[in-house]
Prior knowledge:
- This protein has 23 helices and no strands.
- The protein has about 575 residues and is mostly helical.
- Helix 9 (about 160-210) packs across helix 15 (about 300-310).
- Keywords: Membrane, Transmembrane, Transmembrane helix.
Amino acid sequence: MQAVAADLRLDANAVDFVLLAIYFVLVLGIGYMARRHVSSSIDFFLSGRSLPAWVTGLAFISANLGAIEVMGMSANGAEYGMPTAHYFWIGAVPAMLFLGVVMMPFYYGSKVRSVPEFMLRRFGKPAHLVNGISFAVAQVLIAGANLFLLASVVNLLLGWPLWISVIVAAVIVLSYTALGGLSAAIYNEVLQFVVIVAALLPLTIVGLYKVGGWQGLVDKVSAGPGGAEQLDTWPGNQLTGFTDNFLSVLGLVFGLGFVLSFGYWTTNFVEVQRAMAARSMSAARRTPIIGAFPKMFIPFIVIIPGMIAGVAVTELQGDNKAALMAGEEAPSGATFNHALLLLMRDLLPNGMLGIAIAGLLASFMAGMAANLSSFNTVFTYDIWQAYLRKDRSDGYYLKVGRVVTAIATVLAIGTAFIASTYANLMDYLQQLFSFFNAPLFATFILGMFWRRMTPTAGWTGLVAGTLTAVGVFVLTETGVWELPGQGGAFVGAGAAFVVDIAVSVAVTMVTQPKPAAQLVGLVYSLTPKETRQHETTGEDAGWYRNPALLAGIVLVITILLNLLF
C-alpha cells in the first residue's frame, strides 16, 4: 500500500488536535457507558429492542454514512459529477421507503435476530449457511474499505506510515464496539451524524464561495475533462460506462435503482439491525423513513464538495484529472479518493480543520462499527451457535460476540490493503454489492411473495446469482467486456438478479416446497394482516408517526429533486 506524497499532508495545529482529542473521549465514553447496560446477548446484539425511532433513524442513516457516502461519493463527485446523486434519489430513498412500509413488519414481527435467521426460517439450513457466510465475508471486505480511508486521514494528519495508521484506527473502533455492542455503535452513530454534518456543510459553503458560487462551479466543470454532462443527473453515461442513453438509463433504473438499491437497503443486516433495535413495530417501520429525510439532502454536502475539488484542487485538475478519468495514475500522485481531504487542506482554517477531520473520522468509524456490530451478530448466532456450538449459556455467546468483534477487526486490517488498490472506492464497493446483495435480494423477494418457492431453490439460486456477478466482474476486469465507470457492477447486479430468479423458478418446479403452516409470518400471502400492523396508541399515536404518510412525503420530495436536477 503506497503512502500518499508529502505535499498531500494536512497542516493541523494544536487547536485541531485538542478538538480531535475531545471527540475521541466522547466516543470511548459512550462505549463505556453503554457497557453498563449490557447484561445479555440481546442487549449486546440488538440493544434490548428498546431504542426510540429518532435514535434508530439517525443511526440507520449514519451507519451508511461511512466511506461509501463521504469519501466514496466525494470521489464520485470529482470524477462523474451530479449523476452521482442517483445513488441517493434512485439508489437509496425508494428502497428505504419499501423497507419501512412493506418489509419491516416481517423482520420485526417474526422476532428474528438477523437477516440470515429469516432465511433459515423461510428456506432452511443450506440457504441460511450460504447467506451467513457470504454476509460475513462482505462485512469484513467493506469494513476494510472504511478502515483504509480512516487510516488515510491519520496518515495525512500525522504522517505515520499507512500500515501503522490502519492498526491505530482499527483499535479505536474495536474499543467502543466491543465494550458496548450495538447500543454503543448506535449512540455513537447519532453523535457522528451531527459531527459529519457540522463538518461538511461549512466546507460546501466555503467551497462554493471559492469557485464563484453555483454558476462558477457550472462554468469550471463545463470547461473540464468531464464537460457539461457532469452537471445533469440524467442520462449519466460517464457513470454507467454506456454510450447509449437508453442503456445508461436502463442500467441506472434497473441495475442501481432496483437490484443494487433494494438488495442493499432491504436485505443488508447492517441497516436492518438498526431498525430491529427499535422499541416497537411502529418505531421499526419509521426508522428507515426517518433516515430517508436527511438521506435526500446528503448529496449537497458530499457530491458538491467533490465536484468543487475536481475543479479547484491543483492535484486533481487538468492533466491529473484527465489521467485519473482514463484509469491511469495522475502525475500528482493524488487519486479521487483524496478529493475531500485536499479540499479541506486548501480551504479550511485551523480549528475548522479539526472539526472537519473529526467529521471524517466519525464517518469512517460509523461505517466500520456498523460492519463490525452486524458481523459479530451474524457470525455468533447464524454460524457459531447454529452449526458449531449449540445450546450454550447466554453469557457464553456474549463472550463469543466480543471475541469475534476483535477477530473481524484483524481481518479488516487485511482487507484494507485490497481497498487501497482502487483509485475510486465506489468502484470497489459497487462490485461487492453486486456479488453479495443483488442475488440475496432476488432470493429474498421471490421467497417472500411466492409461497411455492422451495428450500432447495433458496440456496441454489443464491449461489448461481453470486457466481454470475463474479463472472461479469472477471469479464470486465480481463477486458473481454469493455465497460468503464461503474457500469460493470450495474450489469453484474442485473445479471445476478435475473439468473437467481431463473434458477430458483426452475429448481422449484422439480423440488418439494415447505408446508404452508411453516411459512406463516414469512410469506406475504400466508401472514394475517393484523400481525403486519403496528400499534397506533400511546408512543405510537399521531399522524406524524404514520409510516405510510411519512413515506409519501419523502417520495414527493425525491421526485421533485430528480426533476430539478
